[in-house]
Structure formats: C-alpha cells, structure tokens
Known about the structure:
By secondary structure, the protein is α/β, with parallel strands linked by helices. The protein has a single domain, classed as Decaprenyl diphosphate synthase-like (Undecaprenyl pyrophosphate synthetase, 3-Layer(aba) Sandwich), CATH 3.40.1180. It contains seven helices and eight strands. The longest helix has 24 residues, at 75-98. Farnesyl diphosphate (FPP) is lined by residues 21-26, 39, 42-43, 46, 65, 70, 84-85, 88, 137, 139, 188, 213.
Amino acid sequence: MSDTKPTGQAQAIPQHVAIIMDGNGRWAKKRGLPRLAGHQAGTENLRRIIRACVELGVRYLTIYAFSTENWGRPREEVEGLLKILESVIEKELRELHEEGVQLRHIGRLEKLPASLRTQVKNAIELTKDNDRLTVVVAFNYGGKDEIVHAVEQLIRAGVKPEEVSESLIASQLFTAGIPDPELIIRTSGEMRLSNFLIWQAAYSEYYVTPAYWPDFDKEELQKAIDAYGLRNRRFGSVDDENYKD
Ligand code: FPP
C-alpha cells in the first residue's frame, strides 16, 4: 500500500479493523467449562461482531483464528478449532454471502485437511465479488512466516536486489491488495502482537481491553472505535501546528 499517509485526526470509522480474539480459554475456565466451550462462545461472538462491522460501515475485518504456533496446543483443542472453521463455513456461508460479505484467507492452507482446504477455497470463490465487508480469516497464519513466504516468492521470480522495495514486498504478502489495518484490537488484556500482521501493523493504532473475547460485544467494539477516533495519527511526521518556526 501507499508509503506516504496523510497525518492528523483519525477517521471516525476505521476502514480496516483487525482483532486478536484472546481470552476464550479463561472465559471457559471461569465458568468451569472445557476450553473448547470458550472457542464455541467466541465463534458465536464473532458472528455478532461481523454483523456489527457491516452496520458500522467497517470495510475490512481481519480475525486471528489460528496461528502457526497454535499447532502446539493439545490435539483435542487443535482438532476442535479445525472443526469450528469447518462448521462456521457450513452453517454461516450462505447468510454471510447474502449479507454481501467477502471471505478471504491469510496463512498457509497446505497444512489443513484436504476437505477443509476445498471448503475454504469454495467459500472464497463464492464470495469473491461481494464488497460490503471483507472478512479476512487468519488461519495457520504467522507474520514471520508470511514474510518468509514473500521473500521465497521474490527469489523464485528472480527479483534483483535493486528492485526490492516496500511495495514489492507488500505485493507478495498474503494480504496483498488489502489496506493496512488502522486499528488492532486485542481482548483479554494482553499487550502483545503475537506474530499477527507484523508488517502491516507498522502504523496501526492499538486498543487493548480486559474483556474476554466471548464478552466483547458491539458496545465494546464501539468503545474501541471511539478511542481510535480520538487518536492523532502522525506516521512518524509532525502535526502542522507543531511545525512552526
Ligand atoms: C485465543 O484464546 C483464541 C484462539 C487461539 C482461537 C480463536 C478462535 C475463535 C474465536 C473461533 C473462531 C474461529 C474461526 C475458525 C472462524 P485463548 O484460547 O488463547 O484464550 P486464553 O488465553 O484465555 O487461554
């Protein structure tokens, strides 16, 4: 995307919101439930937040559903998360399509079971012309892995050192064509990026809330957007009023 950005007050509604949906496990533990019950509750919440983004006029929503590091979780949990992705597509695709939602995937599909890979590809194909909201699902995604993948592509294409630029690298990321997120939200109070959109987040505004993901409702989303609207975005530059002799 563009290297120069206008500085100043943030727009009222960010066009791209990215969310690290954290705290499902703790939400479940607090209720004496298994971790997967937390992921189920988180999935139901995701459906509500997608609806809220459509209503608010957000154009891109990226969700961190499964990281390259999440394979290290207990087998039951990993299988449960794969199953959740499958059943979300089965149960929600038709309605999402009717609502004008486009689905995209970032990350590596190769490691997923063949039937799930086909399901994801079909969902992307079905919704590719929708333009109300693009939901970008980060599944088997890692920011470092994404950069490695981009470098591999460039080397394979025989790009010369003097041809390498920020925009050329961005064109090879899984997110090619998607504007960088203006706002990154993390639920459950943790203050780290956890290998999420590490290139694209260079000038994102961060918002962290103590709410666990299943409790992060439309009102919480509005609070995050309101906080974003108060930010002064400088992109490494200075405001005009601070630039006087
Ligand atoms: C982090 O909470 C959450 C995840 C690793 C999974 C997020 C997945 C969903 C909300 C389901 C929606 C998924 C799809 C595929 C559409 P955690 O388990 O690390 O919580 P904890 O830190 O409290 O243990």
